[in-house]
Design brief:
The structure is a single chain. This protein is α/β, with parallel strands linked by helices. The N and C termini lie far apart (54 Å). A six-stranded parallel sheet has the order 3-2-1-4-5-6, with helices on both faces. 33% of the residues lie in helices and 23% in strands. Helix 2 links the parallel strand 2 and strand 3.
Length: 172
């Protein structure tokens, strides 16, 4: 019997600025999931001292794209104080959508330090990780098996994206 629960993808990042790879991924996710929630971070735990564009500007850039109806730009992390920790966001959406299957989208480069994320055990119990291949970062099947042995639920997608970073596209 097929699982009929809603499948929700959570896609977080600084989105400073949102670039072609972000946009491409969001459109691809919209085709695969019932709902895609895009989560601009207030302060990224990976870039805690980075100067970012104003939250309203980053949201406006994302909203200007014209995503499909099942894509929502969330203000949840932007309204929080301090660093935007994924486990807190995941807990919020697990409570909001208790009957859904939540997937947190990461690039294949994110597998390396996944268990080092803040409260990774809580996060692993809350979401499944939807891994998208990132150019230059092959998915390591042994690494996936190691993480799964530690309780992480991982779905390796056939989707891929270019190796582009927001910091690389910013104009100095």
């Amino acid at each position: 019997m097929k699982d009929k629960r809603k499948r929700i993808a959570l896609f977080g990042g600084s989105f400073d600025p949102p670039h072609a790879a972000h946009i491409d991924i969001i459109f691809k996710l919209a085709d695969k999931f019932d709902k895609v929630i895009v989560l601009p971070a207030h302060i990224s735990p990976f870039k805690p001292k980075a100067k970012t564009a104003k939250a309203d500007d980053r949201v406006a850039m994302l909203e200007s794209v014209g995503f499909p109806e099942n894509v929502k730009i969330s203000h949840f992390e932007l309204k929080q104080e301090g660093v935007s920790y994924t486990y807190l966001t995941a807990a919020h959406y697990a409570q909001k959508f208790p009957d859904a299957k939540l997937y947190f989208v990461i690039g294949s480069d994110g597998l390396a330090g996944l268990e080092d994320w803040k409260n990774a055990d809580v996060l692993a119990a809350t979401v499944r990780f939807y891994v998208i291949g990132r150019e230059g970062f092959a998915v390591d099947d042994a690494r996936v098996a190691e993480l799964e042995a530690k309780g992480f639920r991982i779905k390796v997608s056939k989707l891929t994206c270019a190796d582009v970073s927001s910091s690389a596209v910013k104009v100095a």
